[in-house]
Amino acid sequence: MQLKVNGEQRNLDAGLTRLNQVIEALGHHPKLVVVEFNGLILTPDLWAQQAVKDGDSLEIVTIVGGGS
Length: 68
Known about the structure:
This protein has one domain (2-62): Ubiquitin-like (UB roll) (Roll). The chain is built from 1 helix and 5 strands. It has one helix at residues 19-25, and strands at residues 2-5, 8-11, 33-37, 40-42, 57-62. It has a 5-stranded mixed sheet, with no helix packed on it. A hairpin with a 2-residue loop joins strand 3 (33-37) and strand 4 (40-42). The longest helix has 7 residues, at 19-25. The termini are far apart.
């Protein structure tokens, strides 16, 4: 399956049918990212229900903490 992830085409296992599976396969920790799926920001509670298909687009932003 081919997805656009952060502007780049990525080939992923076609067995990954849900958004939570894709995020995990890409190596992201669910509590540390914000995900835009085909132009909509989805909260983590919706990821397991969201079907993913060839040609979908993801923008994944990692949350970085810091400070002094």
